[in-house]
Amino acid sequence: MKHEALFERFSKRLKAQVGQDVYASWFGRLKLHSISKSVVRLTVPTTFLKSWINNRYLDQITTILQAEDPDILKVEILVRSASRSARPVASEDRPLIAEAAPSAAAPMSFPRGSAARETGKVASFPMSLGTRPAAAGPLFGSPLDSRFTFDSYIEGPSNRVALAAAKTIAEAGAGAVRFNPLFIHSGVGLGKTHLLQAIANSAVSSARAPRVVYLTAEYFMWRFATAIRDNDALTLKDSLRNIDLLIIDDMQFLQGKMIQNEFCHLLNTLLDSAKQVVVAGDRAPWELESLDPRVRSRLQGGVAIEMESPDYEMRFEMLKRRLEIAQQDDPSLDISVEILSHVARSVASSGRDLEGAFNQLVFRKSFEPSLSLERVDELLVHLVGTGEAKRVRIEDIQRIVARHYNVSRQELVSNRRTRVVVKPRQIAMYLAKTLTPRSFPEIGRRFGGRDHTTVLHAVRKIEDLITGDTKLCHEVELLKRLINENNA
Ligand SMILES: Nc1ncnc2c1ncn2[C@@H]1O[C@H](COP(=O)(O)OP(=O)(O)OP(=O)(O)O)[C@@H](O)[C@H]1O
């Protein structure tokens, strides 16, 4: 408690010193991890933020904390999520001129944090500026990951529409704008970055050579903040205005009023001049509540496509494809179809978990040549159990809530608006949002084809009620227990 109070005072002072806007951009997601002896550990969700704060604000942060408690000698910034820590760093050391992309023959799987991965995500393109000579140069950024192509992207029911839209855009000539802006959203590790980079890789290598920029929202923030600091924002804006295809990844991380204003201008300029924009985020544009309403509204004006988790066949194909690529480097590598199939069945959560599972297998294979299925289970225990078998289903939520409130499941998804049905329906929607990774529109569809705003309203309402109504809070907790027991 004492530590939390200290952190709260520190946050207030920091906000007062740097201003609301800068604070929201860089420190809104800063959390206290621990204070032990004289060391304060703070966490942020991404490597980029860690690097930015370490480079620019560490001294200021240390001074403020020492003013609060003179025993504090050191402050450390850590990345709090393992999956995010694999993100590449958009550091100031990053060359602003694009470099040659890594070899296409490189294996598709690579250890987290490897140099290849580090340069893979935050990237833009060598831009061949139409008929202009190469010396006209790239705008900014570093290479794309050449392994993220359409060829290495496995198609299936969960991503078919998104893939088709992506290919159409990659193939369209400059000016031939489709679905603008295209917004692709999904849970983590389901292939958004891969797809976005495949669009970029394909577009830049086409004969038309459009001017393409791919960057994460965080890189955009960093690049703009740096340009503003260096009084160079006009040059940056000018160069961005002249591109044909803008691809922005991880939109949910775009923060800060000033930066969002800049992004909004850029978006308006590109869309109004019929330039294609592709954006990806971890949820639909209308659910990105931290976004400036004007940005949200422009993004909503295009086409939003959700990607779901890959099914068994897709997962199996992904593993097979990874093995083929890895075998190009090491022809002696042999993993049986039985093992691949077993892994595809047990690791059902995301492409990223499959990638982790595959890397683990390759690593183990080098000193345990004959892996049994039991041994595979042991090795992948941390990834197994997040799969389909364990996933909470909306149908189960509806069934359990309906039984608890003595209404039928049909009534829950019907149009009836009587109080006896409305409250259980809203609770079921709330539970669907909190216990499953489903989006608002998806939940709306599963509740009799309701609009996503109805679900949003229900979730907010129950959230509000729970804070003041202990009885309801207990009811909801009981329902959560029942649902989890049903799923155990
Ligand atoms: N359909 C697919 N075919 C081949 N590989 C895939 C597919 N979907 C995901 N992957 C692989 O899974 C890993 C994670 O994918 P990616 O980074 O694109 O996910 P993401 O949705 O951008 O995740 P995040 O939300 O964390 O940014 C990558 O190695 C990617 O190549």
User: Helices and strands, in N-to-C order?
Assistant: HHEEHHEHHHEHEHHEHEHEHHHHHHHHHH
Unreliable stretches, pLDDT < 50, 5 or more residues?
82-139
Look at the structure and give the CATH class of the largest domain: Alpha Beta
> What does the largest sheet look like?
5 strands, parallel
What are the bound molecules? adenosine-5'-triphosphate
Give the overall average pLDDT: 79
Radius of gyration: 24 Å
Q: How far apart, in Å, are the first and last alpha carbons?
A: 34 Å
Strand order of the largest sheet: 5-6-7-4-8
Quaternary structure? single chain
Please tell me what the overall shape is.
globular
What share of residues are in beta strands? 5-15%
What is the name of the CATH architecture of the largest domain?
3-Layer(aba) Sandwich
Query: CATH topology of the largest domain, anyone?
Result: Rossmann fold
CATH homologous superfamily designation of the largest domain? P-loop containing nucleotide triphosphate hydrolases
- Helix proportion: 40-55%
What's the count of strands?
8
Describe the structure.
The structure is a single chain. By secondary structure, the chain is of the alpha/beta class. The protein has four domains: 2-84, GMP Synthetase, Chain A, domain 3; 115-306, P-loop containing nucleotide triphosphate hydrolases (Rossmann fold, 3-Layer(aba) Sandwich), CATH 3.40.50; 312-389, Helicase, Ruva Protein, domain 3; 392-487, Chromosomal Replication Initiator Protein Dnaa, Chain: A, CATH 1.10.1750.10. The protein is built from 22 helices and eight strands. The chain has helices spanning 2-18, 20-27, 47-56, 58-68, 82-85, 115-120, 160-171, 192-204, 217-229, 233-241, 257-272, 293-300, 312-329, 337-346, 351-365, 373-379, 394-404, 409-413, 419-435, 440-446, 452-468, 470-487, and strands at residues 31-36, 39-44, 74-79, 182-185, 212-216, 245-249, 276-281, 303-306. The strands form two sheets. A five-stranded parallel sheet has the order 5-6-7-4-8, with helices on both faces. The longest helix has 18 residues, at 312-329. The radius of gyration is 24 Å and the shape is globular. The chain starts with a helix and ends with a helix. It binds adenosine-5'-triphosphate (ATP). Adenosine-5'-triphosphate is lined by residues 152-154, 159, 186, 188-194, 250, 282, 310, 318, 351-352, 355.
